[in-house]
Amino acid sequence: LGDDTPVVDVESIGVAPGPGGDGNSSQIAIVVQVPHSDVEDADEVLQGDDFPNQLDDALGDAYNVSAVAGDGATPVGHPTVVVVAPGDGEGGESAADQLRDAILDGLPVLDPALDVSVLPSPDGDGSFVVQVIVPEGTPVREEPNGAVVVLDDDGNAVVVIPPLSEVLDGVSIEGNVVSAGDGTPPGAAGGQPSVDDVREAIQNELGEGASVVVIGDDEDNPSELVVVISGPEGTPSVGDVLAGVQDGLADSYPGFEVSNQDPNDPATTSVGPIVISIEGEPGEDDLAALEAAIAAVIDDGEVVGVSIVGTAPGEDGTTRVAIVIETPNGDAAAVSDEVADPSFPSELDDALGRNVNVVAAGDGDAQDPAEVFITPPGWSAPVVVVVDVPPERAAGEDFEQALQGAIDEVLGDDTPVVDVESIGVAPG
Fold first, then answer.
1. Residue 264 has pLDDT above 70, yes or no
2. Mean per-residue pLDDT of the chain
3. What is the DSSP string of 286-309?
4. Per residue, what are the HEC states of 176-240?
5. b/e for 59-74, b at 16 or more Cβ within 10 A?
6. Could you give the CA distance from residue 362 to residue 345 in angstroms, rounded to a whole number?
7. How far apart are the first and last CA of the chain?
């Protein structure tokens, strides 16, 4: 994964004998723990086709690593964690065999047959990692949702192998409940500091003369905290101490991250819209230069991007340009203040070398610009039904009108039907 993605932990969550049954190889399912902000990048590498080869090189000569799906075979989606509870009392091996048979019963039959690898958890907790594989030599097309379409010699679709997540609802083992798991290893909770840990770490950063109150959504494993610091003038703010808090707790809680930005929120925010009046009729090159000039002029915060929403004719041969500026959340206030500063138009004017004016509140009766979004009506996914109408009438406007009235009634008053179109007709 490289220096930019520290690996906190690696856990084996499924192990089964390797191919050949000679006891000299194993199939092993692993999960890798990395800091939250690195999960997406790590997954891109770990789920990549080349990862088994990369791992083989990194392990050196002591081990040989290869993909579970051999050359020419195709995995159906990513491996899936399946939980079988309660246990049937016959041991993990028997449950694995039953689960494999039950999954095969829910999948299409191929010749040669699909391979279903079932890897029991080494902790014996009733969880299994399952990978469905289309055998070598079968021509296929992989779909974005993880499904695999089996093709004939002419490239036409013959059968669809759905991802395992779509099959599990119909999988059953007598006396057991079969469900999807999340792949979190047993005992994984507790890898983050408690409210008391964070309070102590912040207090250590503040030193004497200042105090801190920390309120969390969970005393032992908090995900959200409210912090109130009190102290004399010059006391550090929450943002000032967070880096030190993370460093101070890193040895006890490797990989944890603390930030005043919600990791589930977008990292950037939009400033604006602002409306700029520019001399003449700008072309594409002029608008590109305007975007670059705005990014160059703003120096009180980082500019991630500048987007031109649109243009409209102004007064006296000018053009009004509506602009939105994308900036990190922490810089939004500073960027907003700079754009609102009376000196901003003249600085932008100097950068562009042409007459620029910002249209803002105070210009006559103008209010602050506001963004409004318009979305067209959407089309549903296709629906196929059989009706007692000849094909030539089924594609006609009269029947579409009848369908529209009927479907409008089915969907109810809260969902107005704008249109109904027949997009495919065949004899019943």
1. no
2. 81
3. HHHHHHHHHHHH--SS---EEEEE
4. CEEEECCCCCCCCCCCCCCHHHHHHHHHHHHCCCCEEEEEECCCCCCCCEEEEEECCCCCCCHHH
5. eeeeeeeeebbeeebb
6. 15
7. 56
The SS3 of residue 358 is strand
Distance of CA 45 to the CA centre of its chain: 15
Core vs surface per residue 118-153: b (16+ CB within 10 A) or e: bbbbeeebbbbbbbbbbbeebebeeeeebbbbbeee
Instruction: Provide Rg for the chain, Cα atoms.
Output: 30
Return all residues near 412 (Cβ < 8 A) that are at least 6 apart.
none
pTM (2 d.p.): 0.58
Bond from prior residue into 75 cis (ω within 30 degrees of 0): no
DSSP per-residue letters across 362-392: TSTTPPPP---------PPPP-----SS-HH
Judge contact between 151 and 111, C-beta under 8 A. no
- Residue-level pLDDT at 191: 66
- Kindly give, in sequence order, each residue whose CB lies less than 8 Å from that of residue 265, ignoring residues fewer than 6 positions away: 329
pLDDT tens, position by position, 140-194: 888 888 888 888 888 888 888 888 888 888 888 877 788 888 766 765 554 678 8
344-352 and 332-340 helices, crossing angle to 10°: 80
3-state helix, strand, coil in the chain (%, to 5): 30, 25, 50
* pLDDT at 293 > cutoff 50: yes
What is the residue whose two structure tokens read 């027949």? 422
Under 8 Å between Cβ of 138 and 157: no
